[in-house]
Amino acid sequence: MPQSQPQKILITGGAGYIGSILVPMLLKDGYAVRVLDNLMYRQHTLFPNFIDKKFEFIKGDVRNKEVVKKALDGVDYIIHLAGIVGEPACKKDPELCYEVNLNATKLINDLRSENQKIIFGSTGSVYGKVDGICTETTATNPVSDYGLSKLQAESAIKTKPNYIIYRFATGFGLSPRPRLDLMINDFVYRALKQKVNIVYEAHFKRTFIHSVDVGRSFVHAVKNFGKMKNEIYNVGSEEMNFTKEDIAKKIQEFIPYHLHFADFGTDPDQRNYEVSYTKIKNTGFDLSVNLHDGIRELLGGYQALHISNPFSNVD
Ligand SMILES: NC(=O)c1ccc[n+]([C@@H]2O[C@H](COP(=O)([O-])OP(=O)(O)OC[C@H]3O[C@@H](n4cnc5c(N)ncnc54)[C@H](O)[C@@H]3O)[C@@H](O)[C@H]2O)c1
User: Fold this and answer.
1) Three-class DSSP category at 58
2) pLDDT tens per residue across span 34-69
3) Which CATH number fits domain 8-173+208-238+276-288: 3.40.50.720, 1.10.150.20, 3.40.50.150, 3.40.190.10?
4) Among 11, 20, 81, residue to substitute to test ligand 1 (most atoms within 8 Å of Cβ)
5) Structure pTM?
6) What's the CA-to-centroid distance between 220 and ligand 1, angstroms?
């Protein structure tokens, strides 16, 4: 009997924090996966996947039309993750932020055929400051270049049918490409390695999702595309809405460290909101990793992580 071809998925930015977790999940589920990534962090996170015949890698830039055309050839789905991620990185080079987050998204969307389904990794930062509970219909008012570039990219994606837009909570947890700039990851690192954390805007409410659950949410979107398409979803869980103080105190349940609250410092995205995740829950998706298990994982992983200070005489 002739074997049917597996469905092929292009993941842009697939060597990043989320992509490195998602790629093996999709391969394991039988999909063929092509990654397009310029490896801007010199990461080698995808090495374990090259043994799989269903895996393909293109080193290239999502801003390059010829490269994108080649990457799109023959794919059924596009999971678009490539980006300049987070406000500090966008603030450092705003031009690059809009080129990659917005212009490259427009390019990919223009070049994809309507049959090629796209799932776009957007962010809760598109909401900006919100009063009350935030749903997908809450007015967007981004206060950072990161949030604005992602919101404008969402508009570009919506110009063609066959899309799903995911607005994620803040990721946390380990990944082959660790990110210490994410709030929980940063708090745990400080508590473990520096034994101290000074928290500003301690009462600000934020919402979180483990990196594995971000990966699972994309697998869910591919499998349920027909019933989920042409919609925006907040991705996370109400059970993962916490204040910064909650997080800092939760870490103290695991290890002792000095915790101080300060009245200086502000979050560049001014995110202080509670988010409703009813819409994605109604499609059958829920989280698998809670805060407790995520902190435990980070503490375990960070024992093995050594980041040296180049200006210290002693390592
Ligand atoms: N991690 C989170 O908390 C979170 C939350 C909300 C949304 N997102 C979104 O999910 C996506 C992935 O985030 P992440 O946390 O994995 O970030 P990341 O920075 O680890 O990954 C981004 C990837 O894109 C690649 N890349 C950057 N510029 C490129 C270019 N010009 N051409 C090709 N590749 C390029 C990088 O090399 C990297 O592998 C992003 O679009 C981000 O906005 C992430």
Assistant:
1) strand
2) 999 999 999 999 999 999 999 999 999 999 999 999
3) 3.40.50.720
4) 81
5) 0.95
6) 19
